[in-house]
Design goal:
Blueprint: E1 5-10, H1 20-27, H2 33-41, E2 45-47, E3 63-68, E4 72-73, E5 84-88, E6 92-97, H3 114-121, E7 131-132, E8 135-136, E9 145-151, H4 154-165, E10 170-178, E11 185-189, E12 193-194, E13 202-203, E14 213-221, E15 225-232, H5 239-247, H6 260-268, H7 270-275, E16 284-292, E17 299-303, H8 308-319
Parallel strand pairs: 4-7, 9-16
Antiparallel strand pairs: 1-3, 2-3, 5-6, 6-9, 8-9, 10-15, 10-16, 11-14, 12-13, 14-15, 16-17
Helix pairs in contact: 1-2
Length: 322
């Protein structure tokens, strides 16, 4: 039952043994399981007049009675931060994130984020998971630029999240890496998890690594650098940055995954050293994003042009000027 109001579900044999939050989301087809769990925790759902937990296993004959609550306001404030909108309708918004913009508030970044900007840009958000907030389906690192899609309601957020999880989203990146890559294309299939020593880093030698796969193709070769197009098959934290470093070709400007060897070589390569002296972030750009629109079922594809700093470095590398 979509929208606001009361709902009643009589549990039959087909739902017996399922979690309460799962049963509610199955019957309220435009609501996610997290939204259902939010209602249960808020006491807006009762079974035979009593409160249960989201994980309660329902029984045949259970009468579930609930009330859809209005979305709660988010604790973060709207801020008039400019955003580059590539597409927008009543369901979602696609934008070109600039480098340097944090996507979601976190310790040390409670304001000035993309979420703050979206709360100002979209004041009529329906709410995600019971909270009036934009639906951040995927993230880009602070210093990675490019295409990002955001859901405006719980139904669309659930659909896009499922597309990401089932790997139906097409993602293409461009990266400028240090060194001249020999082969024209290839694939990196190395698990990624937390670094065993430095917990702020990810690593391919983690004790609890998760499978990760990145396809790559050479777009251009320069004197001491290569422009790669990368195709993410999975979406692990820092995946491209970690896999490029594991190949021996770290992304130019990446302060985290540059090895000591590369730093030594850079200090000896004066020409490239001068070129990248002013680079303050990793040269990584989410160039293209493709997905099926959750409401219209139309196949959509969006591209974002290279940001100014990355475009200037490409031009300098082409000309060979320091």
């Amino acid at each position: 039952m979509p929208g606001k109001g009361d709902f009643t579900i009589l549990v039959d044999e087909s739902d017996a043994g399922k979690r309460l939050d799962a049963v509610i989301s199955l019957h309220l087809t435009d609501r996610s399981r997290s939204f259902s769990a939010h209602l249960i925790r808020k006491g807006a759902v009762k079974i035979r007049g009593g409160i249960k937990k989201p994980g309660y296993r329902v029984r045949p004959g259970d009468l579930i009675q609930g009330r859809i609550l209005p979305a709660e306001p988010l604790q973060y404030a709207p801020e008039a931060i400019p955003i580059d909108v590539l597409f927008e309708d009543e369901s979602l918004i696609v934008l070109n994130k600039p480098p340097g913009l944090v996507v979601h508030p976190a310790p040390g970044h409670h304001s000035g984020t993309l979420v703050n900007a979206l709360l100002h840009h979209c004041p009529d958000l329906e709410g995600i998971g019971g909270v009036s907030r934009p639906g951040i389906v995927h993230r880009l690192d602070k210093n990675t630029s490019g295409v990002l899609v955001v859901a405006k309601n719980d139904r669309v957020h659930q659909n896009l999240s499922a597309q990401f999880k089932s790997r139906k989203i097409g993602k293409k990146y461009l990266a400028l890496v240090y060194g001249v890559v020999g082969p024209d294309s290839g694939t990196v299939s190395l698990p990624i998890g937390r670094h065993p020593v430095d917990r702020k880093k990810m690593s391919t030698v983690s004790r609890k690594g998760r499978s990760a796969e990145t396809g790559w193709k050479v777009k251009a070769r320069y004197a001491a650098a290569t422009l790669l197009e990368l195709d993410l098959k999975t979406g692990r934290t820092h995946q491209i940055r970690v896999h490029c470093a594991a190949m021996g070709y770290p992304i130019i400007g990446d302060p985290v995954y540059f090895s000591r060897r590369v730093k030594r070589e850079l200090s000896a390569d004066k020409a490239l050293g001068l070129l990248i002296k002013g680079i303050s972030r990793q040269m990584l750009h989410a160039r293209r994003l493709a997905f099926v629109h959750p409401e219209t079922a139309a196949r959509m594809r969006f591209e974002a042009p290279l940001p100014g700093d990355m475009r200037r470095l490409v031009d300098d590398l082409k000309s060979g000027r320091p």
